Amino acid sequence: xxxxxxxxxxxxxxxxxARATGGWSAYETWRxxxxxNPDAVSLGVGFPFPDSFPNDELLSAAExxxxxxxxxxxxxxxxxxxxxxxxxVAERARTHGIDCDTSQVELTDGATRAIDxxxxxxxxxxxxxxxxxxxxxGTLAVxxxxxxxxxxxxxxxxxxxxxxxxxELRARRNDDRPLPTLFYTIPTxxxxxxxxxxxxxxxxxxxxxxxxxxxxxxxxxxxDLRYDGxxxxxxxxxxxxxxxxxxxxxxxxxxxxxxxxxVIADEEIxxxxxxxxxxxxxxxAQSAVGRYFADGYYxxxxxxxxxxxxKRRDRMLASLDEHLxxxxxxxxxEGGFFVWVELSEEIDVDVDTDExxxxxxxxxxxxxxxxxxxxxxxxxxxxxRFLRLSFSHGSLEEIDRxxxxxxxxxxxxxxxx
Length: 417
Ligand SMILES: Cc1ncc(COP(=O)(O)O)c(C=O)c1O
Hints:
The protein is α/β, with parallel strands linked by helices. The protein has helices spanning 3-6, 16-20, 28-36, 55-73, 80-95, 111-122, 137-144, 162-174, 199-212, 235-238, 267-276, 283-294, 297-323, 353-363, 396-411; strands spanning 41-42, 105-108, 128-132, 149-153, 155-156, 159-160, 182-185, 215-219, 244-249, 261-264, 328-330, 338-343, 365-366, 368-369, 386-390. Helices cover 43% and strands 14% of the residues. It has a seven-stranded mixed sheet with strand order 2-10-9-8-7-3-4, with helices on both faces. Strands 11-12-15-14 form a four-stranded antiparallel sheet. The longest helix is centred in the last third of the chain and has 27 residues, at 297-323. The N and C termini lie far apart (58 Å). 48% of the residues are buried. Bound molecules: pyridoxal-5'-phosphate.
């Protein structure tokens, strides 16, 4: 059977929602540019740098989990080391001001799975979900699986524009249009903009959630990775109504491969999420990471990561200043992995970062084009003058080389003055 005959054979059996979902198609431009020049410096993906992984500590933690309680470690439900993890998750959340205990923690196989389980608990097809726009495409892919209307709300330098959100909510209520069930937000070191929602706006968002009766899904993937500035409490720490569902992960602070994430929420919500999080608990990984936490490695690793990422961020910002100058604008992120770059008026008005990417790949750098981060599945939703750079993965030398290649690319499309 050739390729053509093979494709579409099961269409009539696939679910309607599976056929409608875009999955990871938002990354298509990035994928083809990467394939076109595999040697280009990758400033596109938000991967941790390889040396950041605590291989020895994780290996020793896993060995100790096997030595101590091997049979139960490999059994359904896991052993005593896996059982340690919810308490560490709750304890860390308390250090960020979230008043919680283990009855409010549901472990999942990473933050994405946590968001999937929460979506399953709250979203019916054709309901409405609000999110920041731009936002993390991985979670947009999850939301698309649920067949919901996804409405993007704009951000500025201080994160989500809560006034714009309020206007949209009010207009919908006045016109009898659907109001959101969930609001998905990455308030701290947002992906892709790097912005952090101010305290005042956090409070306002929670007031709006109460007034318009929706749940706030707070994705705190980067919360432990602050390099400067003052800590701002997570939304879950400010929540007095139990309306915030807080999601965390060790993907950025230990390793994505261990696939450990969690939900922290009101007990009633956690019970519902537990029902939708069916069979999704890798207890072997939980044992290794539980022991890793118990041995005190986490805090130490995070301290080292903060130093390493701060250097990378500073190098990227210095390199952008030196090589791009007035051809682009960006906001200094106080933490996380990303710099969100806007092409300035000096650049030809017709330039679109999706189209520019193949030229950048040929010059030797891959970035993530702005349209990737907007809810419209066809990529026609905005962000054409933006691109995301990640300083998390490359070495300092690669960051310099990548930014120089980006500057060369941008110069080829500068408007003649
Ligand atoms: C905001 C945000 N949430 C979640 C994730 C993924 O988390 P996990 O690897 O735990 O699924 C990422 C990874 O890029 C992210 O940027």
